[in-house]
Specification:
The complex is a heterodimer of chains A (186) and B (254). Chain A has 186 residues and is mainly alpha-helical. Chain A has a domain of 125 residues. Chain A is built from seven helices and no strands. In chain A, helix 3 packs across helix 4. With 254 residues, chain B is an all-alpha fold. Chain B has two domains: 96 residues, no CATH class; 122 residues. Chain B starts with 22 loop residues before the first helix and ends in an 11-residue tail after the last helix. Classes of the chains: A mainly alpha (186), B mainly alpha (254). The interface between A and B is large, with 111 and 111 residues.
Chain lengths: 186, 254
């Protein structure tokens, strides 16, 4: 991609862009547990339904965002960038963040004594296992390009154990992954 | 946003709990914490907002975190929006979330463009491949941290695991449309949790009544009073007092 490509739309039609924005606006309101929890749906949208990118490019978007400072939701921007340059990046990011932010603002205004009511506790408790299942699905989807290799699973196991048992920073584990990849181990 | 960051002095001057004095200060604080957060900003948010700046006390932070996690959308953005609103209205929301996003999105843009430029190099390609695997590992470890909280979940570990497994099967493996799966399983799981919570609180009421000495006839009214009182306590006492704060709260969401 040369610099000028950033400003092009890569042949995307306006209709596609609007649909993309609306789809992400819907995901925004479903994303209890963050943007990564709804990544399986994004992968379905970009890779399977529209064929805009392959599995590897999808996973790379998440990996790039994880290796940079800032909120992880920025991977959504890379997806948009790939299909429609800066306009695409703005579309996916705004779609992903605007509806949920408006909702958060509305709810945040009521100081939440009711946060402990049985109704809200039931929602939190009920959605937790679903978020958990979605995050596992995201892990599975991100492994699409590499999951046939046993070495990838070894690296996943090392990452998981390090995250659960040590205070290792995520950045260190990403760096370890990069090193393993450069050495041709995964 | 365009306002000069002239500190309004904030009513009581230096009295009262510390808070950002201007939109610029708010923007810079969130910018600073975003730039330190690799693979998740929440742990940094605690260090900066609670420990360094004292804009929030630990309880307020936990309350905000819990709220940010029940709400859909990126947790840290939700927190920024709510805090900004609290201090400066909608302009605060914009300043705080812009602080989180402005520089990091430039960095991500730079990295993505750079990668595209060199993606034909085997070394770069290999590195990104390995980073992708590690990223998957990070997401899976977040899921496993959530799994640990299931022991304290009203649904319990078994039902929680069954629901999670159904999600993996339908969305991850069979690739059913996530929207429909969520609309189906979400209400089901919530209803189940609600039923368990209700039954628990009813049992507690029954236990209190049983424990009370029961001079039968006078008791009728008193029993109702006790029941109401217990119910009120139930509603008021944070779940946190029994299960620790943020029962579904993994402290570091990626």
């Amino acid at each position: 991609m040369n610099l000028l490509d950033l400003f092009g739309l890569h042949g995307m039609h306006l209709v596609d862009l609007v649909q993309l924005g609306l789809h992400f606006a819907m995901l925004s309101l479903l994303a209890v547990g963050g943007a990564l929890a709804v990544a399986p749906d994004m992968q379905h949208y970009f890779v399977i339904a529209h064929g805009w990118m392959n599995d590897e490019q999808f996973t790379t978007a998440v990996a790039l965002a994880q290796s940079a400072p800032g909120p992880n939701v920025l991977f959504v921007g890379i997806l948009g960038l790939r299909v429609a340059g800066l306009v695409g990046m703005a579309t996916t990011l705004i779609g992903m963040m605007l509806p949920s932010s408006i909702l958060a603002r509305g709810v945040g205004r009521f100081r939440t004594r009711r946060a402990e009511s049985i109704g809200l506790r039931a929602i939190t408790a009920g959605l937790t296992p679903l978020t958990l299942g979605l995050l596992l699905s995201t892990g599975w989807v991100l492994l699409a390009p590499t999951r046939v290799e046993w070495s990838a699973w070894v690296l996943v196991a090392i990452t998981v154990v390090a995250m659960l048992r040590t205070k290792a920073s995520p950045l260190l584990l990403i760096a370890l992954g990069a090193a393993a990849g450069m050495a041709g181990l995964v | 946003m365009g306002d000069p960051p002239a500190a309004p002095g904030n009513e009581a001057g230096s009295d009262g709990p510390p808070r950002p004095r201007s939109l610029l200060e708010l923007f810079l604080a969130f910018n600073r914490l975003a730039l330190q957060g690799f693979g998740g900003v929440l742990p940094i948010a605690h260090r900066e907002l609670v420990e360094r700046l004292h804009w929030l006390n630990p309880d307020e932070f936990v309350e905000l975190l819990a709220l940010g996690q029940v709400l859909p959308g990126p947790n840290i953005i939700n927190m920024a929006v709510i805090l900004g609103e609290r201090w400066f209205g909608w302009r605060g929301s914009v300043a705080a979330s812009a602080g989180l996003l402005a520089l990091p999105s430039v960095i991500v843009l730079f990295l993505a463009t750079l990668y595209q430029e060199f993606s034909s190099q085997p070394l770069v390609n290999g590195a990104l491949r390995g980073m992708g695997v590690a990223a998957a590992g990070l997401v899976i470890s977040t899921a496993l941290k959530l799994w640990k909280t299931l022991a304290r979940n009203p649904l319990g570990r078994i039902w929680g695991s069954v629901l999670a497994a159904a999600m993996v099967l339908l969305v991850g493996l069979l690739r059913w449309p996530m929207l429909w799966v969520l609309l189906g399983l979400g209400p089901l799981a919530t209803a189940l949790a609600w039923w368990v919570l209700r039954r628990r609180s009813a049992e507690r009421v029954a236990a209190v009544i049983a424990a009370a000495p029961a001079p039968s006839t006078v008791a009728a009214g008193a029993t109702v009073a006790v029941a109401v009182a217990v119910e009120a306590v139930e509603e008021d006492s944070p779940e946190g007092s029994r299960t620790g704060p943020g029962h579904s709260a993994p402290q570091d969401f990626p």
